[in-house]
Amino acid sequence: MHPPLPDGFLFGASTSAHQTEGNNVASDWWAFENAPGSPVTEPSGDACDSFLRWREDMDLLRSLGFNSYRFSVEWARVEPVRGRLSHSAVAHYVDMVEHARRIGLEPVVTLHHFTHPLWFMRDGGWLADDAIDRFVRYLDAVSPVIDAGARTVVTINEPNILSVMHAIVRGDAALEGGLLGGIPAPHRATAERLADAHHVAVDHLRRRHPGVRTGWTVANQAVQSAPGGGAVADDYRYTREDWFLEHSRDDDFVGVQSYTRTVMGPDGIVPAADDAELTLTGWEYYPAALEEAVRHTATVAPGLPIIVTENGAAVADDERRIDYTRHALRGLAEAMADGVDVRGYLHWSALDNYEWGRYAPTFGLIAVDRTTFVRTPKPSAFWLGDLARRGILITDHQESANQEHA
Prior knowledge:
By secondary structure, this protein is an alpha/beta fold. The chain has 15 helices and 14 strands. Helix 7 runs parallel beside helix 10 and helix 12 runs parallel beside helix 13. The relative contact order is 0.14.
């Protein structure tokens, strides 16, 4: 039997507000999804109706055995019109934090998960002269949420992806093939402004909320080099990942978000082999990416605690989700045994939710009926929740979920 996880290890699942709450009508992404000629396949609509059903979601996760839940606060709900705060929205998120703590779920609160108030974008977005001041005013507005009991706070989710998405929504870049085949080059001016906003936010949160640990999350691509691709891989990795990791070195933790690998040859990205298994997102099914991601992060930001804030696979067959996660966790355990300081594992995602343009890629541990919103835990939810309850990442006897929960 493998050793138990360290005290305080976060073992749970993640979501984001826009992807689960539904009807986030004051956000830039709602406008983007519903604009005439929008490139998205379908708008978010009601999503998972989690703005109303969040207690059910939390209670279900806790009953499955998880001890942590990552969710985000939606800026567009808190400040739907510039300078006009919704006190009821703030109270809503305060209720979420308090309920999580009451039932034994450690809340991991993300303050910015891709979406913005529409007014923010129309006024210049992150490139506006007063963008950081606007963000700090938002942090002030949501301080009651943190004071309600949030001890782990993510400032900005995946700034390396956000800097691409920001340019797309502003109209400065085209959405060509989504984010498949690797990450497009981040919009440099936006990336630099996000880094400035992050550092200001960390300082602000440390002063106003002593004892709260803060950091941001970075999308990790587990970059590998094919013959002759070393220099290309190094450049790709630095501009899309390591530059952002360097900006986390003085934080309390960094969130690692890993799904697949990217192989670089001398001419760029090398497609997956013809016989490679692909997920519903079109990414290579490659669970070893997680171990590679945390090990690489530990080399770029040595000594910085790591929380796996997202990891999972969009698959129709839940047995493949269990297989993917089992192998990912085994690799994570090996990295931890070698001294990589990992403080948590939060699976993506808790629910089958809106995946930035469509609902087809199902990442969730819990299925959600798109009409009735009935939640149905999958075998993977029982299997992973059992590991969380037992405080282990892997077992010597890898029984199937059906055997364990027959």
